[in-house]
Structure to design on (169 residues):
């Protein structure tokens, strides 16, 4: 049974998320978000446990889990880069930045670098449209990111907050 492949911490995260949010109407999405917030990903082994806990079929849970790319079904890299691919950023170089990021990290979107360090994810608008191209590194917003700035951010470790002089929304 798939649920047996979960670690104790993963099993507990699922049960606690269901206990906290399972009463909501349409609880599956909030519960999946809670699990990903806690674990960094949603192990496929949660499907039978969620189906039982939320009184859904395994097919329903699996369908939602696989429909939304937001939910990761494999562990993320140690740093997660969310690159904005929406229109305003697109107009000021997001496509070139994405191509650079993919080449630099050696991954496609939704992929994790071979060394396990970085996961590259697309996101559609970060509310920072006037200062694009925008991206998040481990949840920290960076604005007007050129390919050179991208390299510098990765070199800095990038999780310490916006660099001096950088615009924020
Ligand atoms: S379009 Fe990129 S932040 Fe809005």
């Amino acid at each position: 049974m798939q649920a047996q492949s979960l670690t104790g911490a993963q099993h507990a995260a699922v049960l606690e998320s269901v206990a906290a949010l399972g009463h909501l109407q349409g609880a599956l999405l909030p519960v999946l978000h809670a699990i990903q917030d806690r674990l960094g990903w949603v192990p496929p082994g949660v499907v039978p446990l969620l189906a039982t806990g939320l009184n859904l079929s395994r097919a329903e849970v699996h369908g939602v889990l696989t429909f939304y790319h937001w939910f990761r079904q494999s562990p993320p890299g140690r740093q997660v880069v969310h690159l904005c691919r929406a229109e305003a950023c697109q107009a000021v170089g997001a496509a070139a930045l994405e191509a650079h990021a993919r080449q630099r990290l050696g991954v496609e979107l939704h992929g994790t670098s071979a060394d396990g360090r970085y996961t590259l994810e697309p996101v559609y608008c970060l509310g920072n449209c006037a200062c694009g191209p925008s991206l998040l590194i481990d949840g920290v917003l960076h604005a007007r990111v050129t390919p050179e700035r991208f390299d510098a951010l990765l070199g800095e470790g990038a999780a310490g907050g916006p660099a001096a002089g950088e615009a924020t929304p």
